[in-house]
Specification:
The structure is a single chain. The protein contains 13 helices and six strands. It is mainly alpha-helical. A two-stranded parallel ribbon has the order 1-4. Strands 2-3 form a two-stranded parallel sheet. It has a two-stranded antiparallel ribbon with strand order 5-6. Helix 5 packs across helix 10 and helix 7 runs antiparallel to helix 8.
């Protein structure tokens, strides 16, 4: 079953972030924003660090919640968490019988019901990451359309407008980005109703250009700064890792959509890295080599947009490759921060 989702996502250089993502399915009847009076608000800035990133179970959409599903190995857990909102405390996951106490003990360090307010560079990283997630979906959708797989492409066209756009709309308005939800909806409806229509190609190009235009709302100097871009890459890989973990069950690729999501996010993350690779190599050759080598190996996990019969790597192996990139990226980020403070 296809399950709708998206991320309020975790920004790797920050401590906490809400990640928004996708997996299709049926939304629950109570799909309104939960009002939890006991919920505190935490403001996250670029310099905020508090250890492990926590996931707000009241606001995170399914892709972020997939981290719990992958960690605990509980099928459809993301949907179960979403269906039982709102939560007054993390422990409500147990009292509402979403998971057992034993399962909760395994994830309690990364669960929160606190509202997160991003400021400064953290907010820009979050914005750029969400645009990157849109790009990842569209990249995969384009591959599927090129392979005459319109039915498989449709959800990946739908997720940006159904989930991510809603989550980032306030930021788009703040940044005075021209509305492009209509463009995305038009493409989605056309692919759904008449995928062989010649207008699909035109509308698809317009959608990609609209997302690129939204990305361009960030200053070019920021979009080409290694420390900033690496934070975005880390967040995209974090999303890809959780998607891939949710795609695998009993040693097989059980969910094609999650497999494809993770493929698109990794492809775009690598594309972003290529844009700053020369700068990273000059500032930290060792970190650059580790990142580049890991990306080369990581992309082999997705040999094609259509999932292979057997996964190329296990979720643990993918996690290890992602961690290698993230740890070396963090070295460059920290190095850049230190230079900026001098």
């Amino acid at each position: 079953m296809i399950k709708p989702r998206y991320i309020c996502l975790a920004v790797a250089a920050c401590a906490i972030v809400s990640l928004s993502s996708c997996t299709g399915g049926t939304q629950t009847a109570d799909n309104t924003q939960p009002v939890v009076t006991s919920q505190a608000t935490e403001t996250i800035t670029h310099s905020s660090h508090s250890g492990k990133a926590r996931i707000n179970i009241n606001t995170a959409i399914l892709s972020e919640l997939d981290k719990f599903e992958a960690k605990l190995g509980v099928p459809a857990l993301s949907n179960k968490i979403q269906a039982s909102r709102p939560y007054g405390s993390p422990e409500d996951l147990v009292s509402k019988k979403v998971i057992t106490q034993e399962q909760f003990d395994q994830i309690k360090d990364i669960v929160t019901v606190q509202e997160v307010v991003l400021t400064g560079e953290a907010k820009d990283v979050d914005y750029m990451t969400k645009m990157g997630l849109m790009k990842g979906h569209l990249l995969v959708a384009q591959e599927l359309l090129d392979n005459n797989q319109a039915k498989q492409a449709e959800p990946h066209i739908g997720h940006p407008v159904e989930e991510i756009y809603i989550d980032v709309e306030e930021q788009l308005n703040e940044r005075q980005v021209k509305e492009f939800k209509t463009t995305l909806v038009g493409l989605q409806e056309l692919v759904k109703s008449n995928p062989k229509n010649a207008k699909v190609k035109t509308n698809f190009t317009a959608s990609v250009e609209a997302v690129d235009g939204a990305i361009a709302a960030l200053p070019e100097a920021q979009r080409t700064k290694p420390g900033f871009v690496l934070q975005v890459i880390n967040s995209l890989l974090d999303a890809a890792n959780s998607e891939y973990g949710a795609a695998i069950a009993n040693g097989k690729i059980a969910e094609a959509i999650e497999y494809q999501d993770s493929r698109g996010f990794v492809i775009y993350a690598q594309e972003l890295y290529k844009g700053i690779a020369t700068q990273v190599e000059q500032s930290n050759p060792e970190a650059h080599k580790a990142i580049e080598t890991s990306f080369t190996e990581l992309t082999k996990v997705w040999p094609s947009v259509i999932p292979p019969t057997q996964p190329v790597k296990t979720p643990d192996e993918v996690t290890q490759m992602v961690r290698t990139i993230e740890l070396n990226a963090q070295k460059v980020i920290d190095q850049s921060s230190t230079k900026a403070q001098r």
